[in-house]
Amino acid sequence: MAVKVLLLDDEELVRKGIRLILQSDPDIEVVAEGDDGSAAVDLVAGHRPDVVLTDIQMPRVDGLEVVRRLTALPDPPAVAVLTTFDVDEYVYAALQHGAAGFLLKDTPTHELTSAVQVLARGEAMLSPRITTKLLAAFATGTGAAAPRARARMTELTAREREVAKAVAQGQSNSEIASGLFVSESTVKVHLGRIMTKLDAVNRTQVALITHDAGLS
């Protein structure tokens, strides 16, 4: 079954370009588009996309609000933000609000289609390089969020903390499984428990909380 994608961007040429790239992959279908975030919830309800790609800056309802609204839905789609800058405060805020990752608008064709497939599988779309750079820039482990993050991390078992640290380092489930000598299914079980205990909606938020706690 093809991965269903919703595109939100106020620039028609950008939407057209991304649509053409995504639909070059027979396993991806762009089911709807919008030029603003105001209709995001209705579009998701009507088309049930697996992945939503949204621009950060839109005229009426921006990408940050789109992330907030969609991640609050029951069984929400994976949401990634589109940006022209790989690291800035808007991207970090979007991740804090539940975005699964972000994509540069000039991402090469094969990387864009691959990223959508990764998002559809429920994984974070952040490379280890970008994860490290982003967390170093905006999550120091010493800010206002640090005490709460450290308190939440105390709820994790020793093995769960190991998994959380690996997630914060940008490792995939298969890499974590290999490093800890366990199965991928075991990693998924641990990750589910971690997300519940940390009240995180996805692995990206797990990474942010872990780094805020100074444990990554």
List descriptors.
five-stranded parallel sheet, 51% helix, Rossmann fold, 216 residues, 11 helices, alpha/beta, Arc Repressor Mutant, subunit A, globular
Blueprint of the fold:
Layout (H helix, E strand, L loop, with lengths): L2 E6 L3 H11 L5 E7 L5 H8 L3 E5 L7 H9 L6 E6 L5 H8 L4 E4 L4 H12 L7 H11 L7 H8 L4 H11 L4 H8 L3 H15 L4 H10 L4
Parallel strand pairs: 1-2, 1-3, 3-4, 4-5
Helix pairs in contact: 7-11, 8-10, 8-11, 9-10, 10-11
Q: State the major sheet.
A: 5 strands, parallel
Per CATH, the superfamily of the largest domain is Response regulator
Shape: globular
Number of domains: 2
Please mark out the parts with pLDDT under 50 across 5 or more consecutive residues, or reply none.
none
CATH architecture of the largest domain: 3-Layer(aba) Sandwich
E-strand count? 5
Please give the oligomerization state of what you see: single chain
Record the strand order, biggest sheet.
2-1-3-4-5
Order of helices and strands: EHEHEHEHEHHHHHHH
How much helix is in the residues? 40-55%
Measured distance between first and last alpha carbons: 37 Å
If you had to describe this structure to a student in words, what would you say it looks like?
This protein is of the alpha/beta class and 216 residues long. The protein has 11 helices and 5 strands; from the N terminus they run βαβαβαβαβααααααα. Strands 2-1-3-4-5 form a 5-stranded parallel β-sheet, sandwiched between helices. Helix 8 (158-168) packs across helix 10 and helix 8 packs across helix 11. The protein starts with a strand and ends with a helix.
